[in-house]
Fold this sequence. Notes:
Elements: E1 5-9, H1 17-26, E2 31-37, E3 54-57, E4 60-63, H2 67-77, E5 84-91, H3 96-102, H4 104-114, E6 119-125, H5 139-155, E7 163-169, E8 176-179, E9 187-191, H6 194-200, E10 204-208, H7 209-215, H8 235-240, E11 244-249, H9 259-271
Parallel strand pairs: 1-2, 1-5, 2-4, 5-6, 6-7, 8-11
Antiparallel strand pairs: 3-4, 7-11, 9-10
Domain Survival protein SurE-like phosphatase/nucleotidase: 6-177
Protein name: 5'-nucleotidase SurE
Function: Nucleotidase that shows phosphatase activity on nucleoside 5'-monophosphates.
Amino acid sequence: MTDPHVLLTNDDGIDSPGLAALYEELRAVADVTVVAPATNQSGVGRSRSRAVDVDDHEWGYEVHGTPADCAAYALRALEAEFDLVVSGCNLGPNCGEYLMGHSGTVGAAVEAAYLGTPGVAVSAYHRREFFPPNGFTFDVPAAVTRELVERLPESGVFDDVDYLSVNTPLEEHGELRAVEPLADYDVDVREATDDEREQYDGEFRLESDYWDRLDQPDRYPTLERTAYSYPAWSDRAAVVDGDVSLSAMHIPQEAVHSAAVDDLVATYNAEVSVGVPAADD
């Protein structure tokens, strides 16, 4: 069987050690082409640019744009057929719907799915310090990704799934665990303190409870501190347990049809007079 052709991208930039680790590991089981952002693009979600510059790189190409730009450029501009897009390995986990929506790592996989190519977004976490501390390598996440990529072509997973979001520990890990992203997006908006105005250059501070815990290490020194709030089926619970979380996802924005929607449309049309120009006006 021919090795799959993998497009490798990320949101931490083409010089990220997480991307380098995936590149070296995936080459054992796939033909790998790197198309990654020239600079750090963390937190940009699936945002796209109207125009980008592209430079050659020893592993492929570096794009002066977002992760979604990278996926779009590779899948539509290169004269190559890709079987899979792998995005990562991210410096820190992407757990929960709130973070996944903001993540450039996940955004590249979502963009690939919209363009008809399945994707795997890979993020690394450290159980005690959450984000990878200095001195740690990405050998474990890279090995986990290689094992997944090697099995995906024969698995049939992408017959029903558009992309996978994977969170893997940096150290020895437990089982691979099928989970769902935790819905955790509440936001507190308050007037910023003087120090925060200087640091963030804004009059108001927007915080979710999740980011609030991350910003204050004395309140959130370990993942286990908040384990009580995570249901067993969630990606956060898997991360707390030291497992590899795997969320199998459809691309978003699926339309919902319901009786309430039909009633709203019927009531609006019956009660509101709308002037529609005639065809020859």
